[in-house]
Design goal:
- By secondary structure, the chain is an alpha/beta fold.
- It has a single domain, classed as 3-Layer(aba) Sandwich (UDP-N-acetylmuramoyl-L-alanine:D-glutamate ligase).
- It has an 8-stranded mixed sheet with strand order 2-1-3-4-5-6-7-8, sandwiched between helices.
- Helix 5 links the parallel strand 4 and strand 5.
- Helix 1 crosses helix 9 and helix 8 packs across helix 9.
- The chain is globular, with a radius of gyration of 16 Å.
- The structure holds adenosine-5'-diphosphate, 4-methyl-5-hydroxyethylthiazole phosphate and magnesium ion (MG).
- It catalyses: 5-(2-hydroxyethyl)-4-methylthiazole + ATP = 4-methyl-5-(2-phosphooxyethyl)-thiazole + ADP + H(+).
- Its cofactor is Mg(2+).
- Pathway: Cofactor biosynthesis; thiamine diphosphate biosynthesis; 4-methyl-5-(2-phosphoethyl)-thiazole from 5-(2-hydroxyethyl)-4-methylthiazole: step 1/1.
Amino acid sequence: MTALTSIDRVRAQHPLIFNITNAVVTDLTANGLLAVGASPVMSNALEEAADMAAAADALVLNIGTPSAAQVEAMLAAGRAANQHGIPVVLDPVGVGATPFRNRTVRTLLDELELALIRGNAGELGYLAGLDSRVSGVDATAGADTPAIAERACEQLGLPVLVTGREDAMTDGSTLHVVRNGHPLLSRVTGTGCLLSSITAAFLACDDQVMRATADATGFYGVAAELAAAHGEGPGSFRHRLLDRLAELDTAGLTPHLQLD
Ligand SMILES: Nc1ncnc2c1ncn2[C@@H]1O[C@H](COP(=O)(O)OP(=O)(O)O)[C@@H](O)[C@H]1O
Ligand SMILES: Cc1ncsc1CCOP(=O)(O)O
Ligand SMILES: [Mg+2]
């Protein structure tokens, strides 16, 4: 039961997760991290980026609402995180949509050691060099996420998590597919960003990247299924997702987990 170990570790260790993230999702991300037992902090200031990263247990770089100044802070934080050996997760929100996002992701990939890149099928399809059209931040349905994950990992040379109806993750030698989750996740903005940050919290407590990533993804997907079971709309779902993230334990998780 790796999920037991992982979620229990997060709840016992309360890892500090430093998020340099987009303006849309700061509230959901901070509250989702608190719900799973992690400790969130958000900042965009270059002046404190390296110090905050040095104090953190994991760093999340999310380019959803980018600016040149924010990218400078990301580079400073990322370099400090690399020096201190803490995992860095990149969420390349909307890459492929504009040249600025593309340049930003290229710079972060070139300058930093990343533990994981997590994106939707359109974003990772673009980075994999596949025929992938990205015009905003939301993914298109029906993508072959395992094929995209394998190709993106090959192209980028780092572990990849591609989300969608099926979530696929690979480090080039192991491939896992998680078939949990719920379509309502696509009707609440920030749910992919929150998964990136929760995965960072699991990575902070486990140096086995594939195990931590699979455990975080399965845990999140099952929490979403349970949150959606009431059959209501996106507003109640968003609240229930936080409640399930806070309550779900291994006994509740195991019967629902669909992980290969
Ligand atoms: N059709 C779907 N069925 C079940 N879960 C989904 C579906 N689409 C997305 N998800 C889930 O929503 C979360 C966010 O994924 P995704 O929508 O791909 O990312 P983003 O929000 O970055 O575009 C993931 O946990 C994923 O498993
Ligand atoms: C709508 C929007 N616009 C810029 S960032 C953002 C949020 C994206 O969140 P997610 O990728 O988790 O859906
Ligand atoms: Mg996203």
